[in-house]
Design goal:
Order of helices and strands: HHHHHHHEEHEEEEHHEEEHEEHHH
Structural class: alpha+beta
Oligomer: single chain
Shape: elongated
Number of strands: 11
Distance between the termini: 133 Å
Helix content: 40-55%
Number of helices: 14
Largest sheet: 7 strands, mixed
Strand content: 5-15%
Length: 424
């Protein structure tokens, strides 16, 4: 005869088992999420799991005592289920302890690696913090309590480089509370309604300022200079393929520091290049004379100023110096040799002719070399021959390369023609 099963105890055991499984799942998930935290929290969670397991065990034992031993006969299958539950709890506790040990060991390794990197100079936390604090000090906005709200907002917007869109939204919020504030950021910042340009035939010219741009370059040099030397570049820049619209900028850079940082001093726009170079350079030369004589005031210190060189291609160089272009017979900027027309090109084959000097250029000894009097001669301490280095593209490459699809063949052919002429 089959023994009768105690259904009440089995039902209660099943309910307790489900509760334990749910509790274990919650605690295991929680421990997985807090492995990166301190070990104390993990131990506390493990203790909670242990308490749940002990409560479950004690409840099973008490239920066993209360139930009649004769009427309560747990078969082998029920005993295996209870044993499986207890073994599962032990396995979960072991896994949690192992994960805790691994997380602690991994954290120790990270700390050790950081200490090694700092000792080797790979990561200097102190230097990094100093750099961040320095940048914050430079970008720090200090409000003047005596200034009006409009002036403080102007200073804040310019210092933090706030866009007009953001400033416009801010003014819409503040205007109901401060009626004196304008609604448009252009009114607040007093943006000019139109740019004042100067007519330079056949276009318009705007001068940004030589002193302001030199100050900008000195601020970004990040070093103290005993002398301020600049290189000047002037060249044409076409901006349209369908028309002759073009720009003629006057660019400067510091020499020999931070040569890659360029600033624009003046800008001409028209549908042809300026007709008169002196009219185009008038404002630049006027300020260059003043800075050369008086120096540049920077950080309460006067720094001597001079123009180191004019970096221009041959057409632009001939334009601003008022001399013959590179196709003229007396166009050489370094010697007084008269060119010869060879193989459809004006060449200067001899190397022993008399050199040009700055004094000869000012006196215009070679009348055939000049087309007028340049305003650049008014700038002190500038050599109109020595401060204009030769330009490689128009003097060599453009004469040797006529077709871009066969550059090497053209170079060989042109060199052969020159060698043949020299042998004759």
């Amino acid at each position: 005869m089959m023994k009768r099963r105690n259904t009440t105890f089995y039902r209660k055991l099943k309910i307790e088992r489900q509760k334990v499984f749910a509790t274990l799942n919650d605690k295991i998930t929680q421990n997985y999420n807090i492995l990166s935290l301190t070990s104390g929290t993990e131990v506390k969670d493990n203790r909670i799991c242990s308490k749940v397991l002990s409560a479950f065990s004690s409840e099973v034992e008490s239920s066993k005592k209360v139930t009649d031993k004769k009427s309560v006969q747990i078969n082998d299958e029920e005993q295996r289920e209870v044993i499986d539950i207890l073994e599962l709890n032990d396995i979960e506790n072991v896994e949690l302890n192992n994960k805790e040990e691994l997380s602690n060991e991994f954290g120790d390794k990270i700390v050790q690696s950081n200490e090694v990197e700092q000792s080797e100079g790979i990561i200097d936390i102190g230097e990094l913090n100093d750099t961040i604090e320095k940048n914050n000090d430079q970008n720090c906005f200090e409000a003047d309590p005596k200034a009006s709200l409009n002036v403080q907002l102007q200073h804040w917007a310019v210092t933090n480089k706030v866009t007009h869109i953001a400033l416009n939204n801010l003014l819409k919020i503040l205007n109901p509370h401060f009626k004196n504030l304008p609604l448009d950021p252009r009114t607040l910042l007093k943006t000019p309604r139109k740019t004042i340009t100067r007519f330079v035939e056949p276009g318009q010219y705007f001068h940004f300022g030589l002193k302001e741009n030199i100050t900008f370059l000195l601020e970004n040099a990040h070093r103290d200079l005993s002398q301020c030397e600049i290189c000047v570049n002037i060249d044409g820049l076409p901006i349209s393929k369908s028309s002759g619209s073009q720009l003629y900028p006057i660019l400067i850079s510091l020499f020999p520091v931070n040569e890659n940082l360029v600033s624009c001093v003046g800008l001409y726009h028209g549908y042809d290049k300026p007709k008169n170079a002196n009219n185009f350079l008038k404002e630049f030369v006027k300020k260059a004379i003043d800075l050369t004589n008086n120096g540049v005031l920077f950080n309460n210190k006067v720094i001597p100023f001079r123009i180191k060189a004019f970096i221009c291609d041959v057409p632009a160089k001939a334009f601003i110096r008022c001399t013959k272009g590179h196709t003229g017979f007396s166009s050489c900027t370094k010697c007084k040799q008269r060119g010869e027309y060879i193989v459809n090109t004006v060449c200067f084959p001899r190397m022993s002719d008399e050199e040009r000097t700055n004094e000869d250029f000012l006196l215009q000894v070679d009348k055939l070399h000049h087309t007028g009097q340049t305003i650049l001669a008014d700038i002190p301490n500038i050599g109109l021959v020595s401060c204009f280095p030769v330009e490689y593209m128009h003097l060599t490459l453009k004469n040797m390369l006529r077709k871009s699809n066969q550059p090497i063949q053209q170079v060989v052919r042109r060199l052969g023609e020159i060698k043949k002429y020299q042998s004759e």
